[in-house]
Design goal:
- The chain is α+β, with helices and mostly antiparallel strands.
- The protein has 13 helices and twelve strands.
- The strands form four sheets. The protein has a five-stranded antiparallel sheet with strand order 4-5-6-7-8, covered by helices on one side. The protein has a three-stranded antiparallel sheet with strand order 3-2-9. A two-stranded antiparallel sheet has the order 1-10.
- The longest helix has about 40 residues.
- The radius of gyration is 34 Å and the shape is extended.
- The chain starts with a helix and ends with a helix.
Length: about 475
Protein backbone atom coordinates (compact mmCIF):
# COMPACT_ATOMS: atom_id res chain seq x y z
CA UNK A 1 0.00 0.00 0.00
CA UNK A 2 2.81 2.56 0.63
CA UNK A 3 4.06 1.92 -2.91
CA UNK A 4 0.58 2.44 -4.34
CA UNK A 5 0.19 5.69 -2.42
CA UNK A 6 3.58 6.88 -3.67
CA UNK A 7 2.64 6.03 -7.28
CA UNK A 8 -0.61 7.97 -6.97
CA UNK A 9 1.29 10.91 -5.49
CA UNK A 10 3.71 10.91 -8.43
CA UNK A 11 0.83 10.76 -10.89
CA UNK A 12 -1.04 13.65 -9.25
CA UNK A 13 2.12 15.73 -9.12
CA UNK A 14 3.02 15.22 -12.80
CA UNK A 15 -0.50 15.22 -14.27
CA UNK A 16 -1.06 19.02 -14.58
CA UNK A 17 2.19 19.58 -16.49
CA UNK A 18 1.57 16.57 -18.71
CA UNK A 19 -1.90 17.91 -19.44
CA UNK A 20 -0.48 21.28 -20.49
CA UNK A 21 2.09 19.63 -22.77
CA UNK A 22 -0.64 17.61 -24.44
CA UNK A 23 -2.73 20.75 -24.91
CA UNK A 24 0.16 22.52 -26.64
CA UNK A 25 0.65 19.50 -28.90
CA UNK A 26 -3.06 19.46 -29.80
CA UNK A 27 -3.16 23.28 -30.36
CA UNK A 28 -5.68 23.72 -27.53
CA UNK A 29 -3.63 25.75 -25.06
CA UNK A 30 -4.40 29.48 -25.10
CA UNK A 31 -1.56 31.97 -24.77
CA UNK A 32 -1.12 34.29 -21.81
CA UNK A 33 -2.26 37.82 -22.60
CA UNK A 34 -0.43 40.73 -20.96
CA UNK A 35 -3.44 43.00 -21.43
CA UNK A 36 -1.51 45.87 -23.03
CA UNK A 37 -1.87 45.64 -26.80
CA UNK A 38 -4.88 43.51 -27.78
CA UNK A 39 -8.45 44.80 -27.34
CA UNK A 40 -10.82 42.56 -25.43
CA UNK A 41 -13.40 42.42 -28.23
CA UNK A 42 -10.72 40.92 -30.52
CA UNK A 43 -8.92 38.79 -27.93
CA UNK A 44 -12.12 36.94 -26.98
CA UNK A 45 -13.11 36.16 -30.57
CA UNK A 46 -9.87 35.36 -32.38
CA UNK A 47 -7.64 32.33 -31.81
CA UNK A 48 -4.11 31.93 -33.13
CA UNK A 49 -3.59 28.32 -34.25
CA UNK A 50 0.07 27.30 -34.01
CA UNK A 51 1.12 23.82 -35.10
CA UNK A 52 4.81 24.18 -34.28
CA UNK A 53 4.70 22.05 -31.08
CA UNK A 54 3.27 19.10 -33.01
CA UNK A 55 5.75 19.68 -35.83
CA UNK A 56 8.68 19.64 -33.38
CA UNK A 57 7.57 16.26 -32.01
CA UNK A 58 6.56 14.61 -35.28
CA UNK A 59 9.67 15.72 -37.17
CA UNK A 60 11.75 13.53 -34.87
CA UNK A 61 9.30 10.73 -34.10
CA UNK A 62 8.63 10.08 -37.80
CA UNK A 63 12.28 9.03 -38.15
CA UNK A 64 11.72 6.08 -35.77
CA UNK A 65 9.84 3.49 -37.80
CA UNK A 66 9.99 -0.03 -36.35
CA UNK A 67 9.73 -2.65 -39.12
CA UNK A 68 10.19 -5.86 -37.14
CA UNK A 69 12.78 -8.04 -35.41
CA UNK A 70 15.70 -9.87 -36.99
CA UNK A 71 16.09 -13.45 -35.76
CA UNK A 72 19.09 -15.72 -36.19
CA UNK A 73 17.73 -18.98 -37.53
CA UNK A 74 14.14 -20.15 -37.22
CA UNK A 75 11.55 -18.24 -35.23
CA UNK A 76 11.09 -20.89 -32.55
CA UNK A 77 10.00 -18.34 -29.93
CA UNK A 78 7.12 -16.99 -32.03
CA UNK A 79 8.45 -13.43 -32.06
CA UNK A 80 6.89 -12.62 -35.42
CA UNK A 81 3.50 -13.76 -34.10
CA UNK A 82 3.84 -11.53 -31.04
CA UNK A 83 4.84 -8.63 -33.29
CA UNK A 84 1.80 -9.06 -35.54
CA UNK A 85 -0.70 -9.80 -32.75
CA UNK A 86 0.23 -6.60 -30.92
CA UNK A 87 0.83 -4.49 -34.05
CA UNK A 88 4.12 -3.28 -32.66
CA UNK A 89 4.91 -1.27 -35.76
CA UNK A 90 1.97 0.99 -34.80
CA UNK A 91 2.38 0.63 -31.04
CA UNK A 92 6.03 1.70 -31.18
CA UNK A 93 5.04 4.90 -32.99
CA UNK A 94 2.50 5.73 -30.27
CA UNK A 95 5.09 5.11 -27.57
CA UNK A 96 7.68 7.34 -29.21
CA UNK A 97 5.29 10.25 -29.79
CA UNK A 98 4.17 10.12 -26.15
CA UNK A 99 7.79 9.88 -25.00
CA UNK A 100 8.75 13.02 -26.91
CA UNK A 101 5.69 14.89 -25.58
CA UNK A 102 6.01 13.96 -21.90
CA UNK A 103 9.66 12.76 -21.69
CA UNK A 104 8.64 9.14 -21.00
CA UNK A 105 6.04 6.51 -21.88
CA UNK A 106 5.44 2.90 -20.83
CA UNK A 107 4.78 -0.47 -22.46
CA UNK A 108 2.96 -3.03 -20.30
CA UNK A 109 3.20 -6.76 -20.99
CA UNK A 110 0.58 -9.15 -19.61
CA UNK A 111 -1.65 -12.05 -20.52
CA UNK A 112 -4.97 -11.02 -22.03
CA UNK A 113 -7.71 -11.50 -19.37
CA UNK A 114 -10.17 -12.70 -22.03
CA UNK A 115 -7.66 -14.98 -23.75
CA UNK A 116 -4.89 -16.15 -21.36
CA UNK A 117 -2.99 -17.71 -24.26
CA UNK A 118 -2.51 -14.29 -25.86
CA UNK A 119 0.07 -11.84 -24.57
CA UNK A 120 -0.94 -8.16 -24.76
CA UNK A 121 1.64 -5.39 -25.15
CA UNK A 122 -0.18 -2.10 -24.58
CA UNK A 123 1.30 1.42 -24.87
CA UNK A 124 0.66 3.78 -21.94
CA UNK A 125 1.13 7.54 -22.05
CA UNK A 126 2.64 9.44 -19.15
CA UNK A 127 -0.49 11.51 -18.48
CA UNK A 128 -2.33 8.32 -17.42
CA UNK A 129 0.65 6.46 -15.92
CA UNK A 130 3.33 6.86 -13.27
CA UNK A 131 6.52 5.10 -12.30
CA UNK A 132 9.04 4.86 -9.46
CA UNK A 133 12.68 4.48 -10.41
CA UNK A 134 15.00 2.13 -8.52
CA UNK A 135 18.30 4.03 -8.59
CA UNK A 136 20.21 1.28 -6.86
CA UNK A 137 19.43 -1.34 -9.51
CA UNK A 138 18.93 1.21 -12.31
CA UNK A 139 15.52 -0.07 -13.36
CA UNK A 140 11.84 0.60 -12.87
CA UNK A 141 10.78 -0.37 -9.36
CA UNK A 142 6.99 -0.07 -9.79
CA UNK A 143 4.48 1.40 -12.20
CA UNK A 144 0.85 2.50 -12.20
CA UNK A 145 -1.50 2.62 -15.18
CA UNK A 146 -4.98 4.12 -14.97
CA UNK A 147 -7.46 1.97 -16.88
CA UNK A 148 -10.85 3.65 -16.26
CA UNK A 149 -12.37 6.92 -15.11
CA UNK A 150 -15.94 8.21 -14.81
CA UNK A 151 -17.63 11.10 -16.59
CA UNK A 152 -16.39 13.56 -13.95
CA UNK A 153 -12.75 12.49 -14.35
CA UNK A 154 -12.52 10.48 -11.13
CA UNK A 155 -10.37 7.35 -11.25
CA UNK A 156 -12.41 4.14 -11.18
CA UNK A 157 -9.72 1.51 -11.66
CA UNK A 158 -5.99 1.21 -12.13
CA UNK A 159 -3.29 -1.46 -12.24
CA UNK A 160 -0.17 -1.54 -10.10
CA UNK A 161 2.81 -3.36 -11.59
CA UNK A 162 5.34 -4.72 -9.09
CA UNK A 163 8.20 -7.20 -9.45
CA UNK A 164 6.60 -10.63 -9.48
CA UNK A 165 3.02 -9.39 -8.96
CA UNK A 166 0.35 -7.26 -10.62
CA UNK A 167 -2.58 -5.77 -8.67
CA UNK A 168 -5.88 -4.68 -10.20
CA UNK A 169 -7.43 -1.92 -8.08
CA UNK A 170 -11.01 -0.76 -8.57
CA UNK A 171 -13.69 1.21 -6.73
CA UNK A 172 -17.32 0.21 -7.36
CA UNK A 173 -20.42 2.08 -6.05
CA UNK A 174 -22.67 0.14 -3.68
CA UNK A 175 -26.31 -0.24 -4.70
CA UNK A 176 -28.45 2.48 -3.09
CA UNK A 177 -26.13 4.22 -0.68
CA UNK A 178 -23.81 5.57 -3.36
CA UNK A 179 -20.75 4.59 -1.34
CA UNK A 180 -17.58 3.20 -2.86
CA UNK A 181 -16.32 -0.30 -2.25
CA UNK A 182 -12.61 -0.47 -2.95
CA UNK A 183 -11.10 -3.74 -4.09
CA UNK A 184 -7.42 -4.68 -4.27
CA UNK A 185 -6.85 -8.09 -5.78
CA UNK A 186 -3.90 -9.81 -7.47
CA UNK A 187 -4.28 -10.35 -11.18
CA UNK A 188 -4.00 -13.73 -12.89
CA UNK A 189 -0.85 -15.47 -11.67
CA UNK A 190 0.37 -16.00 -15.18
CA UNK A 191 0.60 -12.24 -15.65
CA UNK A 192 3.43 -11.94 -13.12
CA UNK A 193 5.64 -15.00 -13.27
CA UNK A 194 8.92 -13.23 -13.85
CA UNK A 195 11.48 -13.34 -11.08
CA UNK A 196 11.89 -10.39 -8.76
CA UNK A 197 15.28 -9.39 -10.24
CA UNK A 198 13.71 -8.62 -13.63
CA UNK A 199 11.45 -5.92 -12.19
CA UNK A 200 7.79 -5.37 -13.12
CA UNK A 201 6.54 -6.41 -16.59
CA UNK A 202 6.60 -2.78 -17.72
CA UNK A 203 9.24 -1.22 -19.91
CA UNK A 204 9.80 2.56 -19.87
CA UNK A 205 10.53 4.46 -23.06
CA UNK A 206 12.44 7.58 -21.95
CA UNK A 207 13.66 10.31 -24.28
CA UNK A 208 17.32 11.22 -23.71
CA UNK A 209 17.67 9.76 -20.19
CA UNK A 210 20.47 11.05 -17.98
CA UNK A 211 22.21 9.54 -14.98
CA UNK A 212 20.50 12.05 -12.68
CA UNK A 213 17.19 11.91 -14.60
CA UNK A 214 16.59 8.37 -15.92
CA UNK A 215 12.99 9.23 -16.84
CA UNK A 216 14.28 11.35 -19.72
CA UNK A 217 13.42 14.85 -20.85
CA UNK A 218 10.75 16.20 -23.14
CA UNK A 219 11.28 17.99 -26.43
CA UNK A 220 11.08 21.77 -25.70
CA UNK A 221 8.15 22.19 -28.05
CA UNK A 222 6.00 24.72 -26.18
CA UNK A 223 8.49 27.24 -24.76
CA UNK A 224 7.95 30.26 -27.08
CA UNK A 225 4.34 29.31 -27.86
CA UNK A 226 2.84 32.25 -25.93
CA UNK A 227 5.04 34.84 -27.61
CA UNK A 228 4.25 33.47 -31.06
CA UNK A 229 0.53 33.53 -30.30
CA UNK A 230 0.68 37.17 -29.22
CA UNK A 231 2.56 38.11 -32.41
CA UNK A 232 -0.04 36.44 -34.62
CA UNK A 233 -2.92 37.93 -32.65
CA UNK A 234 -1.48 41.44 -32.87
CA UNK A 235 -1.17 40.96 -36.62
CA UNK A 236 -4.80 39.90 -36.81
CA UNK A 237 -5.71 42.95 -34.72
CA UNK A 238 -4.14 45.24 -37.32
CA UNK A 239 -6.05 43.48 -40.08
CA UNK A 240 -9.28 43.81 -38.11
CA UNK A 241 -8.72 47.52 -37.60
CA UNK A 242 -8.09 48.02 -41.30
CA UNK A 243 -11.36 46.31 -42.08
CA UNK A 244 -13.12 48.55 -39.58
CA UNK A 245 -11.53 51.57 -41.29
CA UNK A 246 -12.95 50.55 -44.66
CA UNK A 247 -16.40 50.12 -43.13
CA UNK A 248 -16.26 53.63 -41.66
CA UNK A 249 -15.01 55.22 -44.88
CA UNK A 250 -18.41 56.72 -45.73
CA UNK A 251 -18.66 58.29 -42.29
CA UNK A 252 -15.17 59.76 -42.69
CA UNK A 253 -16.11 61.36 -46.03
CA UNK A 254 -19.09 63.05 -44.39
CA UNK A 255 -16.81 64.46 -41.69
CA UNK A 256 -14.42 65.80 -44.36
CA UNK A 257 -17.24 67.59 -46.12
CA UNK A 258 -18.34 69.16 -42.84
CA UNK A 259 -14.80 70.28 -42.08
CA UNK A 260 -14.37 71.79 -45.54
CA UNK A 261 -17.55 73.84 -45.01
CA UNK A 262 -16.06 75.57 -41.97
CA UNK A 263 -14.91 79.12 -42.71
CA UNK A 264 -11.70 80.70 -41.53
CA UNK A 265 -11.41 82.03 -37.98
CA UNK A 266 -10.71 85.62 -36.98
CA UNK A 267 -6.99 85.08 -37.65
CA UNK A 268 -7.67 83.62 -41.10
CA UNK A 269 -6.72 80.00 -40.18
CA UNK A 270 -8.55 77.16 -41.89
CA UNK A 271 -9.02 73.58 -40.54
CA UNK A 272 -6.23 71.24 -41.66
CA UNK A 273 -6.68 67.53 -42.55
CA UNK A 274 -3.70 65.24 -42.05
CA UNK A 275 -3.40 61.60 -42.95
CA UNK A 276 -1.93 59.36 -40.27
CA UNK A 277 0.28 56.63 -41.71
CA UNK A 278 -1.15 53.17 -41.26
CA UNK A 279 0.70 50.74 -39.01
CA UNK A 280 2.98 48.35 -40.90
CA UNK A 281 2.96 44.55 -40.65
CA UNK A 282 6.73 44.38 -41.17
CA UNK A 283 7.73 44.52 -37.46
CA UNK A 284 5.39 41.62 -36.69
CA UNK A 285 6.72 39.56 -39.61
CA UNK A 286 10.31 40.20 -38.54
CA UNK A 287 9.50 39.21 -34.97
CA UNK A 288 7.79 36.04 -36.18
CA UNK A 289 10.92 35.10 -38.15
CA UNK A 290 13.03 35.69 -35.05
CA UNK A 291 10.79 33.39 -33.00
CA UNK A 292 10.93 30.77 -35.77
CA UNK A 293 14.73 30.82 -35.66
CA UNK A 294 14.58 30.37 -31.88
CA UNK A 295 12.21 27.40 -32.19
CA UNK A 296 14.37 25.86 -34.94
CA UNK A 297 17.50 26.11 -32.78
CA UNK A 298 15.79 24.54 -29.75
CA UNK A 299 14.06 21.69 -31.58
CA UNK A 300 16.70 21.19 -34.32
CA UNK A 301 13.96 21.41 -36.94
CA UNK A 302 14.92 23.21 -40.18
CA UNK A 303 13.36 26.65 -40.22
CA UNK A 304 11.82 25.91 -43.63
CA UNK A 305 9.67 23.24 -41.95
CA UNK A 306 8.07 25.99 -39.86
CA UNK A 307 6.65 27.70 -42.93
CA UNK A 308 9.04 30.66 -42.74
CA UNK A 309 10.70 31.89 -45.93
CA UNK A 310 13.93 33.75 -45.28
CA UNK A 311 15.34 36.50 -47.48
CA UNK A 312 18.05 34.17 -48.77
CA UNK A 313 16.58 30.78 -49.76
CA UNK A 314 18.12 27.87 -47.92
CA UNK A 315 20.49 25.84 -50.05
CA UNK A 316 20.29 22.07 -50.43
CA UNK A 317 23.52 21.64 -48.44
CA UNK A 318 22.15 23.71 -45.56
CA UNK A 319 18.91 21.71 -45.57
CA UNK A 320 20.84 18.43 -45.55
CA UNK A 321 23.01 19.68 -42.67
CA UNK A 322 19.93 20.65 -40.64
CA UNK A 323 18.28 17.28 -41.29
CA UNK A 324 21.45 15.41 -40.28
CA UNK A 325 21.05 16.81 -36.77
CA UNK A 326 17.65 15.13 -36.54
CA UNK A 327 18.86 11.84 -38.02
CA UNK A 328 21.75 11.63 -35.55
CA UNK A 329 19.36 12.11 -32.64
CA UNK A 330 16.92 9.59 -34.12
CA UNK A 331 19.65 6.99 -34.62
CA UNK A 332 20.72 7.32 -31.00
CA UNK A 333 17.14 7.20 -29.77
CA UNK A 334 16.38 4.12 -31.89
CA UNK A 335 19.17 2.28 -30.06
CA UNK A 336 17.63 3.18 -26.69
CA UNK A 337 14.07 2.44 -27.81
CA UNK A 338 15.23 -0.82 -29.40
CA UNK A 339 16.77 -2.02 -26.14
CA UNK A 340 13.52 -1.52 -24.27
CA UNK A 341 11.41 -3.09 -27.03
CA UNK A 342 13.73 -6.09 -27.14
CA UNK A 343 13.41 -6.44 -23.37
CA UNK A 344 9.63 -6.18 -23.64
CA UNK A 345 9.59 -8.88 -26.30
CA UNK A 346 11.68 -11.13 -24.02
CA UNK A 347 9.18 -10.62 -21.19
CA UNK A 348 6.31 -11.48 -23.54
CA UNK A 349 8.05 -14.71 -24.61
CA UNK A 350 8.70 -15.67 -20.97
CA UNK A 351 5.07 -15.03 -19.97
CA UNK A 352 3.72 -17.00 -22.91
CA UNK A 353 6.02 -19.96 -22.24
CA UNK A 354 5.28 -19.84 -18.51
CA UNK A 355 8.92 -19.43 -17.46
CA UNK A 356 10.26 -17.11 -14.79
CA UNK A 357 13.14 -15.66 -16.81
CA UNK A 358 13.82 -14.29 -20.26
CA UNK A 359 15.28 -16.94 -22.65
CA UNK A 360 18.99 -16.62 -23.44
CA UNK A 361 18.19 -16.96 -27.14
CA UNK A 362 16.74 -13.42 -27.03
CA UNK A 363 20.32 -12.18 -27.24
CA UNK A 364 20.27 -13.01 -30.95
CA UNK A 365 17.08 -11.00 -31.56
CA UNK A 366 17.41 -7.38 -32.64
CA UNK A 367 14.84 -4.74 -33.64
CA UNK A 368 14.97 -3.48 -37.21
CA UNK A 369 14.33 0.22 -37.88
CA UNK A 370 13.70 1.86 -41.20
CA UNK A 371 16.61 4.05 -42.39
CA UNK A 372 16.55 7.54 -40.94
CA UNK A 373 18.39 9.09 -43.88
CA UNK A 374 16.87 9.68 -47.29
CA UNK A 375 19.18 8.08 -49.87
CA UNK A 376 18.48 7.93 -53.58
CA UNK A 377 17.95 4.57 -55.28
CA UNK A 378 20.99 5.15 -57.48
CA UNK A 379 23.26 5.72 -54.46
CA UNK A 380 21.88 2.62 -52.74
CA UNK A 381 22.40 0.46 -55.82
CA UNK A 382 25.97 1.73 -56.24
CA UNK A 383 26.89 1.01 -52.63
CA UNK A 384 25.18 -2.39 -52.78
CA UNK A 385 27.12 -3.42 -55.89
CA UNK A 386 30.48 -2.35 -54.47
CA UNK A 387 29.97 -4.18 -51.18
CA UNK A 388 28.57 -7.33 -52.87
CA UNK A 389 31.74 -7.59 -54.97
CA UNK A 390 33.88 -7.67 -51.83
CA UNK A 391 31.72 -9.69 -49.38
CA UNK A 392 30.62 -13.20 -50.31
CA UNK A 393 26.90 -13.84 -49.81
CA UNK A 394 26.12 -10.20 -49.13
CA UNK A 395 23.90 -9.81 -52.20
CA UNK A 396 21.37 -12.43 -51.04
CA UNK A 397 21.50 -11.70 -47.32
CA UNK A 398 18.90 -9.81 -45.33
CA UNK A 399 21.55 -7.25 -44.38
CA UNK A 400 22.31 -6.56 -48.02
CA UNK A 401 18.66 -6.32 -48.98
CA UNK A 402 18.02 -3.88 -46.14
CA UNK A 403 20.98 -1.79 -47.31
CA UNK A 404 19.44 -1.84 -50.77
CA UNK A 405 16.34 -0.18 -49.35
CA UNK A 406 13.89 -3.09 -49.08
CA UNK A 407 11.57 -3.12 -46.09
CA UNK A 408 11.05 -6.17 -43.86
CA UNK A 409 7.74 -6.89 -45.57
CA UNK A 410 9.35 -6.74 -49.00
CA UNK A 411 12.17 -9.04 -47.88
CA UNK A 412 9.64 -11.55 -46.52
CA UNK A 413 7.70 -11.52 -49.79
CA UNK A 414 10.94 -11.90 -51.75
CA UNK A 415 11.99 -14.89 -49.64
CA UNK A 416 8.58 -16.50 -50.20
CA UNK A 417 8.85 -16.00 -53.96
CA UNK A 418 12.36 -17.44 -53.94
CA UNK A 419 11.14 -20.46 -51.98
CA UNK A 420 8.34 -21.09 -54.46
CA UNK A 421 10.75 -20.74 -57.37
CA UNK A 422 13.17 -23.23 -55.80
CA UNK A 423 10.35 -25.69 -55.16
CA UNK A 424 9.23 -25.42 -58.78
CA UNK A 425 12.77 -25.96 -60.04
CA UNK A 426 13.12 -29.07 -57.84
CA UNK A 427 9.88 -30.50 -59.23
CA UNK A 428 11.03 -29.80 -62.79
CA UNK A 429 14.34 -31.52 -62.10
CA UNK A 430 12.54 -34.53 -60.63
CA UNK A 431 10.31 -34.75 -63.68
CA UNK A 432 13.35 -34.59 -65.95
CA UNK A 433 15.13 -37.40 -64.08
CA UNK A 434 12.05 -39.61 -64.15
CA UNK A 435 11.59 -38.96 -67.87
CA UNK A 436 15.21 -39.86 -68.60
CA UNK A 437 14.74 -43.14 -66.68
CA UNK A 438 12.18 -44.23 -69.25
CA UNK A 439 9.11 -43.96 -67.05
CA UNK A 440 5.56 -43.63 -68.29
CA UNK A 441 3.31 -40.67 -67.83
CA UNK A 442 0.53 -40.63 -65.28
CA UNK A 443 -2.55 -38.42 -65.20
CA UNK A 444 -0.89 -35.57 -63.26
CA UNK A 445 1.87 -35.33 -65.86
CA UNK A 446 4.70 -36.81 -63.72
CA UNK A 447 6.83 -39.74 -64.84
CA UNK A 448 7.00 -43.10 -63.08
CA UNK A 449 9.87 -45.48 -63.87
CA UNK A 450 9.09 -48.90 -65.34
CA UNK A 451 9.79 -51.88 -63.05
CA UNK A 452 12.30 -54.37 -64.36
CA UNK A 453 11.99 -58.11 -63.82
CA UNK A 454 14.41 -58.13 -60.92
CA UNK A 455 12.54 -55.26 -59.22
CA UNK A 456 9.23 -57.09 -59.66
CA UNK A 457 10.76 -60.27 -58.20
CA UNK A 458 12.12 -58.34 -55.20
CA UNK A 459 8.74 -56.69 -54.71
CA UNK A 460 6.89 -60.04 -54.72
CA UNK A 461 9.46 -61.53 -52.33
CA UNK A 462 9.08 -58.61 -49.96
CA UNK A 463 5.32 -59.01 -50.12
Amino acid sequence: MPIIQELLRVWREKYPRNLIRGAYYDCKERFKDFGISIPDQIKNKVEAMIGWPELAVRSLSDLSDLEGFSISGDDTMGINDLFEDNQLDVTASELIVSSYKHSCSFLTIAADPEDPERISMIPRSADWSAGIWDRRNHRLAAALTITEDDKDGRICSFNVWLPGKVYECSGRPLHARGENRNELRPADGRRARLRQADGPPVRPQPHQPFAHEPRGRRIPHHGPHGGIGRILLRSQTLVHRREQGRVQQQHVEELIQAINAISADEDGNLPQLQQVQQASMAPHSDMLKTMAMLVASQTRVPVDYLGITLDNPTSAEAMASAERRLTRIADKQNVAFGRELKRAMGIAVALREGTNSIPDSMRDVHPVWAPTKEISDAARADAFTKIADKVTGYADSDVGLERLGLSREEITRLRADQQRQRAKEQIDQLKARLASAGGEEVQDGTQQPEHTGDEQERSSTAA
